[in-house]
UniProtKB/TrEMBL annotation:
<dbReference type="GO" id="GO:0004638">
    <property type="term" value="F:phosphoribosylaminoimidazole carboxylase activity"/>
</dbReference>
<dbReference type="InterPro" id="IPR005875">
    <property type="entry name" value="PurK"/>
</dbReference>
<keyword id="KW-0547">Nucleotide-binding</keyword>
<comment type="pathway">
    <text>Purine metabolism; IMP biosynthesis via de novo pathway; 5-amino-1-(5-phospho-D-ribosyl)imidazole-4-carboxylate from 5-amino-1-(5-phospho-D-ribosyl)imidazole (carboxylase route): step 1/1.</text>
</comment>
<protein>
    <recommendedName>
        <fullName>Phosphoribosylaminoimidazole carboxylase</fullName>
        <ecNumber>4.1.1.21</ecNumber>
    </recommendedName>
</protein>
<dbReference type="InterPro" id="IPR013815">
    <property type="entry name" value="ATP_grasp_subdomain_1"/>
</dbReference>
<keyword id="KW-0067">ATP-binding</keyword>
<dbReference type="GO" id="GO:0006189">
    <property type="term" value="P:'de novo' IMP biosynthetic process"/>
</dbReference>
<dbReference type="Pfam" id="PF22660">
    <property type="entry name" value="RS_preATP-grasp-like"/>
</dbReference>
<dbReference type="Pfam" id="PF17769">
    <property type="entry name" value="PurK_C"/>
</dbReference>
<dbReference type="InterPro" id="IPR011761">
    <property type="entry name" value="ATP-grasp"/>
</dbReference>
<dbReference type="InterPro" id="IPR003135">
    <property type="entry name" value="ATP-grasp_carboxylate-amine"/>
</dbReference>
<dbReference type="InterPro" id="IPR016301">
    <property type="entry name" value="Ade2_fungi/plant"/>
</dbReference>
<dbReference type="Pfam" id="PF02222">
    <property type="entry name" value="ATP-grasp"/>
</dbReference>
<dbReference type="InterPro" id="IPR033747">
    <property type="entry name" value="PurE_ClassI"/>
</dbReference>
<dbReference type="InterPro" id="IPR000031">
    <property type="entry name" value="PurE_dom"/>
</dbReference>
<dbReference type="GO" id="GO:0046872">
    <property type="term" value="F:metal ion binding"/>
</dbReference>
Length: 590
């Protein structure tokens, strides 16, 4: 028999999507869900029928106690619940489990208390300090932490609504900040402005038995303090980024949860990446998180599946990605509207622009639109999201391009990297680039110089960062004592194809052995570190072999390769027929 279990999902009037997706996961396991939220049509209530849903606020103690009287387990989709009410549940209903624990929720819902608590465990944080909502205190905080200064409301802050970036210390600027942050009615604190190069997030899951696992680190891109885009897994931008970064981010996030907070369930850990490759924790959410939506389509078990499994004491699911890459775009309300003006047969939401985005997603391979069933659209309100999956970061970015403006979509990362020791090798390596460009336009590639002997440090960072940048195959051309392909292969798990270059033929200098020197050098790799070697100067075959390697799991590339082979065959057929018509003697004179 399925466990008799109800979940308390408390929902703010501006939210409800996390509870909705959690309820969807619960429905697959016959887990009964009871939702506490205002109104009968709250997003989570829409998708799971129950006569026991409760109409009320997550800050209403009586309603929370009423809900607790009907359930075995309570959980939250938002941290701003009435924690005193949860403590009262403990006394009134000692058999009801609450995950995460009320003490964790209490610590986390006050961002300043959360940071103070984390600092006890030497978790990396930027400088911060309490500040009274008065001009003098704020001026003093500027004195201590500098400008710009991030002023934050300690409680009830989400989607950037509790943040104010103070850029000047004149009285007008300070009074605008105070007005924005509750006109003195809210407790504030100040953070030193963090000059981050990227924002990351890691979803951490803790089971009832204390097991802690994590999802791959993702990159989050915020606009006006609201998350717009998520790229999963995080791609390293340049060869100077630490190749260990994805694993380091997971480690830092897991440690923060292990050391800092009790209770089972999912925790969303937001982080800043600094120029020097160090990480700072920004904030932690004691629940599934916006930047983990992608896990529904992209991971073996979603964050919602795992939150349920964790709080019910069931085996945790695998957090591994089951696709090469994913992107997630939040669909934000474009205007204030409550009824659809769409003239199309089906209208998905009260917002015309959202209808358009949804149609676009429905006609894009790998794209899954999620709409949250909110009857009212407001500018900036989270109305839904679109997850796009693909075999590689390049494919996902290509598929996402119609949804997000060029400013928000970076150029695709290369799948194939063509490197050579010297620009004198370029004429030999150029055919590799040309054949990719001509016959395989969907395969992005890069061409660059990396010298095993003259730039050994660049060689090391190139090889170590390649996989993290999304590269799938490296083609390395080298002449003479051709160490480049082998050295690269010794520092990355990616396949490397070596092209022996006849350096004499291209530069008029070099080895002078017709490329045989480079050929033996690349071919005779020691056991354990293979390099695929093509014929001397045959970079074309290296490119074709690289496409064949990445076509594993990408049937359309196999089709493209077969079309290419057919074109080669057609060309020979054409020559046979011309030779037949003109006679071999005439043909041979051409
Ligand atoms: P919310 O609870 O609304 O998500 P956050 O504290 O996470 O609030 O802030 C939202 C966004 O504001 C962050 O994702 C980041 O882009 C920016 N931000 C927050 N704190 C800082 C800071 N100290 N320095 C620079 N930018 C910040
Ligand atoms: Mg945040």
């Amino acid at each position: 028999m399925a466990p008799k279990c109800y979940l308390f999902i408390s929902i703010m009037s501006s939210g409800g999507q996390l509870g909705r997706m959690l309820a969807a996961s619960a429905s697959l396991l016959n887990v009964q869900v009871n939702v506490l939220d205002v109104g009968a049509d709250a997003p989570a209530k829409q998708i799971i029928a129950s006569s026991s849903h409760i109409d009320g606020s997550f800050r209403d103690k009586e309603k929370i106690l009423e809900l607790a009287s009907k359930v075995d387990v309570l959980t939250v989709e938002i941290e701003h619940v009435d924690v005193d009410a949860l403590e009262a549940v403990r006394i009134a209903h000692p058999n009801v489990q609450i995950h995460p624990t009320p003490s964790t929720i209490r610590l986390i819902q006050d961002k300043f208390a959360q940071k103070q608590h984390l600092s006890l465990f030497a978790i990396p944080l930027g400088p911060f300090q309490a500040v009274e909502p008065t001009p003098d205190a704020i001026a003093q905080a500027v004195n201590d932490l500098g400008l710009p200064l991030m002023l934050k409301s300690r409680t009830m802050a989400y989607d950037g609504r509790g943040n104010y970036a103070l850029h000047a210390v004149d009285s007008q600027s300070i009074s605008s900040a105070i007005d924005f942050l509750g006109s003195g009615s809210r407790q504030l604190y100040a953070e030193k402005w963090v000059l981050f190069v990227k924002e990351l997030a890691v979803m951490v899951v803790r089971g009832i038995d204390g097991t802690v696992i994590s999802y791959p680190a993702v990159e989050t891109i915020h606009k006006d303090n609201i998350c717009h885009l998520v790229w999963a897994p995080i791609r390293l931008g340049g060869i100077n980024e630490d190749p260990e970064l994805p694993r380091k981010a997971e480690r830092v996030a897991r440690e923060a949860i292990e050391k800092g907070f009790e209770g089972a369930g999912v925790f969303g850990v937001e982080m800043f990446l600094l120029e020097d490759n160090s990480l700072l924790i920004n904030e932690i959410a004691p629940r599934p998180h916006n930047s983990g939506h992608y896990t529904i389509e992209a991971c073996e078990s979603s964050q919602y599946d795992n939150h349920l499994r964790a709080i019910l004491g069931l085996p945790l699911g695998s957090t591994r990605m089951k696709v090469g890459a994913a992107g997630m775009l939040n669909i934000l309300g474009s205007s204030n509207s409550s009824s659809s003006m769409s003239s199309s047969l089906v209208s998905f939401s009260p917002d015309l622009l959202i209808d358009k985005l949804t149609y676009l997603a429905l006609s894009t391979p790998g794209a899954s639109p999620h709409l949250y069933g909110k009857a009212q659209s407001r500018k900036g309100r989270k109305m839904g999201h679109i997850t796009v999956v693909g075999s590689s970061d390049a494919e996902v970015r290509q598929r996402m391009a119609p949804f997000s403006s060029p400013a928000r979509t970076l150029p695709p990362h290369p799948l194939i990297s063509i490197i050579m020791g010297s620009d004198s090798d370029l004429p030999t390596m150029l055919p590799a680039a040309q054949i990719l460009q001509k016959h395989f336009p969907s395969v992005p590639f890069e061409v660059t110089l990396v010298s095993a002997h003259r730039t050994p440090l660049r060689l090391m960072s190139f090889a170590k960062s390649a996989a993290g940048r999304g590269v799938k195959v490296i083609i390395a051309g080298a002449g003479g004592a051709a160490h480049l392909p082998g050295m690269v292969a010794s520092m990355t798990g990616l396949p490397v194809v070596g092209v022996p270059v006849d350096s004499k033929s291209v530069s008029g200098g070099g080895g002078g052995l017709g490329g045989v020197d480079a050929m033996w050098s690349i071919l005779q790799m020691p056991r354990g570190i293979p390099v695929a070697t093509v014929a001397i100067n045959n970079s074309t075959n290296a490119a074709l072999l690289a496409v064949r390697i990445i076509s594993v799991g990408q049937p359309h590339l196999i089709t493209q390769m077969e079309e290419y082979l057919n074109r080669l065959g057609d060309e020979v057929e054409r020559k046979i027929s011309v030779m037949g018509e003109t006679g071999w003697g005439e043909y041979g004179k051409k």
